[in-house]
Write a structure and sequence with these properties.
This protein has 349 residues and is of the alpha/beta class. 42% of the residues lie in helices and 12% in strands. This is Sulfotransferase.
């Protein structure tokens, strides 16, 4: 390296090394700062990445509908605020109302089930409204009847008041449900009506109940009066006597057509579930309601209602083993034994 020589006088010479380059020093400092900065950024990014992973892993979404879950149970219906033409809801105008329909077949426990629902303070189920032919004569008549019910313009003994939280009725499969299913499905989905399918697993017991009820329509066993159901609104002794009187009749089941009739009943139910698959719905069986007390809670939750203890005053008519209820039991037993319907012979409900 070159040295600078300073001459102070002719007798004195001082040799002094040169100053370090300021540019080199700046470069060294800059490189150090950059390296340290990169190190700090790397540490920060690692910490942020770690936190993100923990958050994503630990967070759980509550009440998110599953894409593969049954649409009927996952879809939350819209809230309705009906404005009836026949009366004013006044202070209840802002109370939402759920719409529902109980779709069933005769002698499947729908009457008993409806009395259970109507024991809920917030429910008004208006009975079998389409039993009247004019109300189901065509699609226009059906839609007009549905509008009256869901607009709260339908009044029956089951009507609570303008503050009802759930309004509906029961509808049998042979009352226009199957013939006009496309138009009805469109209506139910458009108005967000929840459908409760109620069926009976033991179709043989249902058949016995159908035959006995059909016989009583003409025989009128209770002092010349036909009764499809017996309720405890009267004296307990009277109620028990009525139920016992009705249960004494033992129908004769056509054993020749028995398997064919049972199969046709199964097909009808399967078609109904297929036709109404796109609605918000749940399927309930009479036997489950009888044997599982939690099933009624599931129904109330499906209807988005506060869960209450539900009670019915309806009394069961046909009790005991089927061997005591069918007159030609030996023929029926022989026909079903060894078939897919053999379990019907032993079931209690």
């Amino acid at each position: 390296m070159a040295e600078y020589i300073y001459l102070l006088s002719k007798d004195a010479v001082i040799i002094k090394p040169p100053k370090k380059s300021s540019m080199l020093l700046r470069m060294v400092v800059l490189m150090f700062a950059m390296t340290f900065g990169v190190y700090i950024c790397t540490i920060c990014l690692q910490q942020i990445s770690g936190l993100s992973k923990v958050n994503i892993k630990d967070i759980q979404v509550i009440n998110e509908p599953s894409n593969t879950a049954d649409r009927g149970l996952s879809h939350v219906p819209k809230l309705h605020y009906p404005n009836p033409e026949s009366f004013s809801r006044e202070e209840c105008v802002d109370n939402p109302v759920r719409y529902f329909a109980i779709v069933s077949t005769q002698r499947s426990g729908s009457g008993w089930f409806e009395t259970l629902l109507n024991s809920h303070v917030n429910v008004s189920s208006n009975g079998e409204i389409f039993s009247v032919l004019d109300r189901r004569r065509n699609v226009s008549a059906i839609v007009g009847t549905l509008d009256r019910v869901y607009n709260l313009d339908w009044f029956s003994s089951a009507s609570k008041n303008e503050c009802s939280a759930a309004v509906g009725f029961k509808w049998m499969l042979n009352q226009g449900v199957m013939e006009h299913h496309e138009e009805i499905v469109e209506y139910l989905n458009r108005r967000d009506v929840s459908v409760i399918f109620l069926f009976r697993r033991n179709l043989l017991r249902r058949m016995v109940s159908l035959l006995a009820n059909s016989y009583d329509k003409y025989a009128k066993l209770l002092n010349g009066t036909h009764k499809s159901h017996v309720h405890t609104t009267e004296e307990p002794a009277t109620v028990l006597l009525q139920a016992e009187t009705l249960s004494k009749y033992k129908p004769i089941v056509n054993s020749t057509l028995l398997i064919s009739d049972l199969r046709q009943a199964e097909i009808l139910v399967a078609k109904a579930l297929e036709y109404y698959n796109t609605t918000r719905h749940m399927v309930v069986y009479y036997e489950d309601l009888v044997n599982n007390s939690k099933k009624l809670e599931e129904v109330q939750e499906f209807m988005r209602l506060p869960v209450m203890e539900l009670r019915s005053r309806q009394v069961k008519i046909h009790k005991g083993p089927l061997s005591e209820l069918i007159k030609n039991w030996e023929d029926v037993n022989k026909t079903l034994y060894g078939t897919e319907y053999e379990n019907y012979l032993r079931a209690d409900y």
